[in-house]
Amino acid sequence: MPTRVDNKPGTTKRMLWMVGGVLLLIAVIVGIKVLLVMRMIHSMPQPAPATVSTTTVREQPWQPALDAVGTLRAAQGAELAMDASGLVTAVPLKSGQDVKQGQLLLQLRDGDEAAKLEQLQATAKLSQLTFERARQQLAAQAISQAEYDRAAAELKANQAAVAQQQVIVAKKQLRAPFAGRAGIITISPGDYVSASTTLVTLQQLDPLFVDFHVPQSELGRLQVGQSLHLNLDAYEGRQFDGKLTAISPKVDPGTRNVRVEASVPNHDKALSPGMFAKLAVDVGQRQPRLTLPQAAIVYNPYGDTVYVVHPSKGKDAQGHPLPPTVQQTFVTVGETRGDQVAIVKGLAAGTEVVTSGQVKLKNDAPIKVDNRVQPADSAHPTPQEH
């Protein structure tokens, strides 16, 4: 019976070679795939740098100020009306005219009253002559004291009648109670006007007052005589200066605010009563501060930050300079002034920071700087219509 040969070692060896070949083939295939993927990744276009605007941190004089909004008011203002009813005979006033105190603005028909005044003046003049003769005769003892007293009393009565009639005649005239600028008048000669009916407004324009309110917590920073600065949307880029003139002694129990009054010179009559103004009251000594536009600050619950711009380093595969990158930096901010904010800690003067486009950024993100449009950076911005 033939002997059986054991082939197990040879079979095992062949199987090992087969397994090794398969693994090597898999490794080669995987390597080729990885190489293709890497080449594909490198060949794909890189994301474009985010477009942002930037500015540099500046050190500039900083005037601590208390911001508020207020309304301009005439130092003197009145709605003028007649004391008597009657027919209009003359209107010397023109709409918008500057008038002097006592200037005639409107005349009512006063023929009867004026005639009676002349009659009373003639009677008073005769009484004056009679009294003078009586005084001379009394000195010469030609008349009694009673006759002299009678002449004196008659003179006083006639003079009082003249004064009374002068008041009646004066009520037929409308005169300016103070110097100022008249409003629009629509009355014409021939119109009938009633007593107490408003005919025209009169406003004294220089100076003007501005009324505003501040929280009671700010009372300790205010005192009469402090300077303040006004900005109005009607005069962009122009600032009007004034002085604090009065602080109300009473706090409004409903709002806990205090009313404050300031005087503003208005020599060129540019300002008008009723205008809305944004104002800042100087409440401390001017001192240097690092400033940025408020738009540069990213406010977060965990801290306020800015994106600091770092210059490009190195070149890309094509030899082009790499774009600049940004790094998020924590800062401590101080007071605000218009569109600006003071930087207390975290930045140095001259540092370039992002002012718009922060929502697209993260640390080390590449950027493209476009400063054609910049956010507002004014200490005294022009207020908008409210």
Report the portion of residues in β strands.
25-35%
What do we call the CATH topology of the domain at 50-62 and 287-369? conserved putative lor/sdh protein from methanococcus maripaludis s2 fold
Sheet of most strands: 6 strands, antiparallel, barrel
Which term fits the overall shape?
rod-shaped
Number of strands: 23
Strand order in the sheet with the most strands: 3-12-15-14-13-16
Residue share in helices?
10-25%
In whole angstroms, the N-to-C terminal distance is: 118 Å
Query: Which sequence of SSEs, written as H and E, runs from N to C?
Result: HEEEEEEEHHEEEEEEEEEEEEEEEE
The radius of gyration over CA amounts to 45 Å
Structure description:
This protein is α+β, with helices and mostly antiparallel strands and 386 residues long. Among the domains are: 50-62 and 287-369, conserved putative lor/sdh protein from methanococcus maripaludis s2 fold (Beta Barrel), CATH 2.40.420; 66-75 and 204-282, Elongation Factor Tu (Ef-tu), domain 3 (Beta Barrel), CATH 2.40.30; 110-171, Helix Hairpins (Orthogonal Bundle), CATH 1.10.287. Helix content is 24%, strand content 34%. It contains 3 helices and 23 strands. The strands form 6 sheets. It has a 6-stranded antiparallel β-barrel. Helix 2 runs antiparallel to helix 3 (145-170). The termini are far apart. The model has no long low-confidence stretch (mean pLDDT 85).
